[in-house]
Each structure stands twice: as structure tokens, then as C-alpha cells.
């Protein structure tokens, strides 16, 4: 897919050799399924050279759902396995530009979502979570990197990558530069001591890849290292594996704010079943785990391979 | 011109009544020649209500020429006459985006140009000169106003106003929002105590009007007062009244860094003359002051009406 590479057994072996521990189950199970330049990041780690992690969240509502959690859970493992700094961008400016909400509302979503992200247990000493609406106005270096990227990308290029039209507002059109800027260590002088040469690894859902293909294209032209990438697939909605969880449809998603009972009820009521059409049929043929949403969720959350194998 | 009004004798009388002093000679001589909503600003002043001044400079080189000085000289008079705060935006980010220079070079032009601007004698207690490259990264409120404007203007609108093409970089396309933001008092919470309702008067050269027509269009949609405007005409280049001084052509301009002797030599050598073709012709018919660059310069700089009249 546009120059990314699948995560194959050779790379999984390199992970194991480099870290001295098995790769995360999301990697082993193909949920984190492709990458760009991950070999180079593993090589850096072997040589004791620094790099940092960057991921983000578009805070589109107060409630995060389980699908949003996957890249963060995986990022947490990466931070622990590699013992590196992590920056987490909350693109509240993006949500203001794209949605019919005020800046104040977008900013409040950042606070609510940040609580859920913090609750996942990132290393407080090595993690920087920031609101664009706050941080861009607090960091001349971040703004300068935005300018550098904005100078290096034309409307035509942004249109080609993101499908912008002439009716889109000018904020949307220049936004990709804001998502690009955290890939460069010089955007965080307080973390990286004003160094601009520290490489970045971005774990993200695959739909974010266009932003970072653009970033990788621009990086050498502005004298910065290209960020490496690890792509994860989508977490399926309750309605089935071909659907994506949507925060705007409460019945498609399990939210972090749902009570344990609400989660159980939702799964029982809405989760697409791979079971047989009748009890007899089910007893005879068994269920189809490939399309059974409950089983698929276990693939994302159950770290015990043997138990998962047994359920299959 | 697109809804602006000429500065006529009625408005000049209002100036005089409001201020208890004659309007500045640039107003009287039609060099500051049109306006938007200046009546409302005069009314505010009469009522003792606050407003502020905003002007700016695109620091495209180290050297400012006399043409650049005119709006600042006039702004200085406005500040003294009305006794109001003034913000001066140095758009070094714009110059970085438009020109083949680095951010560091653009930022250094701000410092050099700011020295020339300061030397004109603005009230140090009531004047805030800022570099975009520094201030945007130091003011969340400024960035938020940028976002508000960027959400309210489409590519199509920006194209219609500024003639952008699809080959322009995305930074240029969103830049007009950066020039709009200082029109709103909430962009300077440290000056206006976080008030968002203080009206703005922008003295500027006429070529900047498109930015502020856009700003006036957007202002009510983001809950801010429309800025008022005072437009000045161009200062002619040495080559003649139909030409505009250009910093990139040293022989077209008198620079603030030129020595008195260099100024004299430039005027003598290059200033387009309205004199007769021969001494005889000149003695018979006199000169044509309308096209004589030396005389035109006196219209911009000689505040003594009687002396100017005598020269004519």
C-alpha cells in the first residue's frame, strides 16, 4: 500500500531479538499489520540511539470508544518496550474546523478524552499530551515547523491526498501541516533539548496514513528525518467486521464511559454473531469466528494466546 | 471602491470637530484618500469609548524605504491624536511563505524593520510590535482567532479575493486569516484585558484592503466588531508617479538606511522631473508639479501647507 511493508515473520523476529521479549499480540495477530521504516527504528534501538513516539486523537466527542483505545494500548506497549518519550496530539483545532462545534467545546473534548488516555497508564515522566488549541499558541518552534510544512505542500498536493475541494475552508486545507509538525523533534524543544534530528515512530490507525505519507515526503525537504510508521487496522463495530465503530452511533460502539453492565447488554444485544442460524445448525457446524464480533473483540483485547486459541 | 468611501470635506470637518485640531496633512491632501466606517470611530472617540489601531509590515528585506514609512507616520499621528493602543504586526511568516528565504532570515528582517519603526517615535507604553513567528507561538488566543477566521473562509473565497491558484502552497492559502486576526481585540488579551468587543481602526496602504474586506466579511460571523479602515495611496518611486517603490530595486527607492548625501544624490540623479525639456521652455512654462517626483515627495513629507503652496 503506497510503499508500506507488511509486518512479516522476519520483522517479528527482529522485534523479538531487539527487545528480548515477544512482540505485542496486536503485532503477532496482524492487527498492527504494516509499517514504514520500522527496521530502522529497531536498528536505532539496538544501537542505543534515541527516538520518540507520536500518536494522536481527534477529540470529536466527550466519549471515546473501544476502537479509539487500540492504537493507544499498542503505543503504551511500545513506550514500555522501548522506554522512549511519547507525544500525544489532541487535534481539537481540526475538530473545530470540521464539525459544527465551538472552539470551547472542541477544547473541552480534549480534556475529557485526555482523562481516558491518561487512564491507560502511560509513563507520566515520558508522556506529553497536548491540545493544539493550547500548545500551538505556546510554542514558537511548533508554529515554525507548521510554516515549514505549509510552504512545502501545494493545494494541488493536499487535494490529491485528502480530497479537498475549493469549497473547503482554508483552515482544513492547511491543517495537514499541523498533524505533520509533531513528527519533528524540534517541535518540542522542552522535551528534546532543541534537537531537530531525533527520529519519530508513529503508531496509528491506517486511515491516518495519508497525513504521514505527506509528512515523509516533506521531511527531507525541510531537513528533518522521515517518521517511521506502524499501522493498525480498524476495530470492528458491533454490527460486524466490515463496519467501523462510530462515536456518533451509540449502538455501534462500546464506550469507555459505559458501565460493565451496559457493555454486557450491548454485546449481547448488538454484537454480530458468527453462530449458526439455529441451535441444531450451531451444534452441528459450530460458529464462524471470522465474522463473530465477540470473538474478534477478544483478538484485540485478550493477550493470552492459548485461551484465544481454545475459544477458536 | 468595493464599498469604501472617499475622505470628503464632511469627514475632514468631523475629524477637526472631534479632535479639536486640523486633520493630518496626509488626510487633507488626499494621500489618505478613502475609508470604511471612520465616522463610527470618530463617534466612539467623542463618546469616550475605546478603540485601538492596527497596522503592519511585511518584512521582505532589511531595509525599509520611504514608501513604507508613510502609513506608519500617519499611524503615529492617529495614535497621538486619539491616544489609543496600537498593535503592529510583522508578517515574517508571510515573507517566509512567499519568498525564497529561511524562517531565520525572515525573523531577522522583523528585528531590523522594527528598529526603523520604533525610530519613528510611537508611544512605547501604548504600542505592541510583534513578529508572527514569535507571537503566534506565544498566544493561544491569537491562534484561536486564526482558527475562527480559517473556518469562515473557503478556498474559493480566498481565490476570488487574492488570486490564489491550486499550485500555491497551503500556507499562502490560509495566511489571510493571520493578517485578519489582529483586527480583533481578543487576540491581545494582555493589552485588552481579554475583552473581545473593542473596535479596531486599520490605517494601511490601499493594496492591503482585500485582507480587510475579507476580515470585515468574517467579523460578524465570529461575533467580533468589523474593523474600520483608512487607506493611503502609494508613495511614488523615483522613476515617476505611476510607479511604486520596490525594495528590490535600489534605484527606485530612498531607503531609511541611505545617508543624507546618498538621498540627495539619488533624488538629483533618478527623481523624475516635471521640469521643461530645455531651460528656455522651463523658464517660459514652468514645471509640472503633478508629475515631478521631488514635488510629490514634499506632498508626503512637508507638513507646512504654506511652504508647499509656495513651491507649487
The average pLDDT of chain A is 94
The top level CATH class name of the largest domain in chain A = Alpha Beta
Helix content, binned percent of chain A: 40-55%
Whole-number radius of gyration of chain A?
Answer: 20 Å
Q: Unreliable stretches of chain A, pLDDT < 50, 5 or more residues?
A: none
- Helical element count of chain A? 17
Q: Report the portion of residues of chain A in β strands.
A: 5-15%
Q: Give the name of the CATH superfamily of the largest domain in chain A.
A: HUPs
The overall number of domains of chain A is 2
Biggest interface, and residues per chain?
A-B, 38 and 38 residues
Structural shape of chain A: globular
Which secondary-structure class do the elements of chain A indicate?
alpha/beta
Number of strands of chain A: 9
Amino acid at each position: 500500500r503506497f510503499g508500506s511493508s507488511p509486518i512479516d515473520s522476519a520483522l517479528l523476529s527482529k522485534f523479538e531479538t531487539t527487545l528480548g521479549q515477544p512482540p505485542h499480540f496486536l503485532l503477532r495477530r496482524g492487527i498492527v499489520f504494516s509499517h514504514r521504516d520500522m527496521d530502522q527504528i529497531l536498528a536505532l534501538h539496538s544501537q542505543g540511539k534515541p527516538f520518540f513516539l507520536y500518536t494522536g486523537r481527534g477529540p470529536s466527542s466527550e466519549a471515546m470508544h473501544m476502537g479509539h483505545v487500540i492504537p493507544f494500548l499498542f503505543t503504551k506497549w511500545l513506550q514500555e518496550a522501548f522506554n522512549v518519550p511519547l507525544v500525544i496530539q489532541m487535534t481539537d483545532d481540526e475538530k473545530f474546523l470540521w464539525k459544527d462545534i465551538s472552539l470551547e467545546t472542541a477544547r473541552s473534548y480534549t480534556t475529557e478524552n485526555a482523562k481516558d488516555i491518561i487512564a491507560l497508564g502511560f509513563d507520566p515522566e515520558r508522556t506529553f499530551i497536548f491540545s493544539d488549541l493550547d500548545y500551538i499558541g505556546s510554542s514558537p518552534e511548533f508554529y515554525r515547523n507548521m510554516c515549514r510544512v505549509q510552504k512545502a505542500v501545494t493545494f494541488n498536493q493536499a487535494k490529491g491526498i485528502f480530497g479537498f475541494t475549493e469549497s473547503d475552508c482554508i483552515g482544513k486545507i492547511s491543517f495537514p501541516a499541523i498533524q505533520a509538525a509533531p513528527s519533528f523533534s524540534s517541535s518540542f524543544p522542552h522535551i528534546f533539548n532543541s534537537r531537530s534530528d531525533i527520529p519519530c515512530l508513529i503508531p496509528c490507525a491506517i486511515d491516518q496514513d495519508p497525513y504521514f505519507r505527506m509528512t515523509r515526503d516533506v521531511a527531507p525537504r525541510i531537513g528533518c528525518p522521515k517518521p517511521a510508521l506502524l499501522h493498525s487496522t480498524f476495530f470492528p463495530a458491533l454490527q460486524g467486521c466490515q463496519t467501523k465503530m462510530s462515536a456518533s452511533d451509540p449502538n455501534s460502539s462500546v464506550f469507555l464511559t459505559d458501565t460493565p453492565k451496559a457493555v454486557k447488554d450491548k454485546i449481547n444485544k448488538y454484537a454480530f454473531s458468527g453462530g449458526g442460524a439455529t441451535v441444531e445448525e450451531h451444534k452441528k457446524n459450530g460458529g464462524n469466528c471470522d465474522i463473530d464480533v465477540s470473538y474478534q473483540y477478544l483478538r484485540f483485547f485478550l493477550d493470552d494466546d492459548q485461551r484465544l486459541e481454545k475459544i477458536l
